[in-house]
Design goal:
Blueprint lengths: L9 H11 L6 E6 L5 E6 L2 E6 L2 E5 L3 E2 L4 E2 L1 H9 L1 E6 L5 H6 L10 H5 L3 E2 L8 E2 L4 E14 L5 E13 L4 E2 L2 E2 L1 H4 L2 E3 L5 E3 L14
Antiparallel strand pairs: 1-2, 1-7, 3-4, 4-11, 5-6, 7-10, 8-9, 10-11, 12-13, 14-15
């Protein structure tokens, strides 16, 4: 079948995207408002962009509940800083708690029972329980649509990386110790602990 996305409602487009693009890594993003209020929320529209400069990308959206930009979007515009905390098996329950939408100013660190730990290069704290955290300064924000169903792409240059000591060996992250999880559709998540390997095939000579 061929589907014309322009003939679908926002929710129908959303279901197609999150059902087809799986599993998605989860950016557990901590931010701070201009007046110092902390926020913590997960985003599965998230990826790495490039290593030089080390850059990450996540996409906050429009809050259907409050009919405005989500707090994370507002905060990164106000302060220009954020931390991407990686979610794993040990932190998945706390991450899920922070997916709840509160009124602006509610401290999700407290709600989820996680610890705000000082960052080294920015003011926004990281999640102490997270196995890997990337301190980021906003490089640019590309607003795709500022309204219902819309969102923005936030590019952040990584200025410091926190890695749990046992996870790094010869410059590589050990995935069996990281135990990441992936986002599926609806309430579904994926365990990412069954790995297989394929060498790249060289071009014919």
């Amino acid at each position: 079948m061929v589907i014309d996305p322009n003939k679908l409602a926002n929710q129908e487009r959303y279901k197609l995207l999150v059902g087809a693009i799986v599993p998605r890594p989860i950016a557990w993003v901590s931010t701070m408002s201009a007046d110092g209020r902390l926020n913590l929320a997960p985003f599965s529209y998230f990826t790495a962009v490039c290593p030089n400069p080390m850059t990450l990308l996540f996409c906050p959206g429009w809050s259907a509940e409050r009919n405005r930009r989500k707090d994370t979007w507002i905060n990164v515009e106000q302060t220009g800083e954020f931390v991407v905390n990686i979610v794993n098996e040990d932190t998945k329950e706390a991450m899920n708690l922070t997916a709840t939408e509160f009124d602006q100013g509610e401290n999700e660190f407290v709600w989820a029972g996680v610890t705000p730990a000082p960052s080294t290069r920015i003011v926004v704290p990281r999640v102490a329980e997270s196995p890997i955290s990337f301190e980021c300064k906003v490089q640019r924000i590309v607003v795709v649509h500022d309204g219902p169903g819309g969102g923005a792409a936030v590019f952040g240059e990584v200025v410091a990386v926190h890695v749990r000591d046992d996870l790094l060996e010869n410059g590589r992250i050990l995935p069996h110790l990281l135990q990441p999880i992936g986002r599926m559709a609806g309430d579904a998540y994926a365990h990412i602990n069954d790995f297989f390997f394929m060498r790249r095939v060289p071009p014919p000579t």
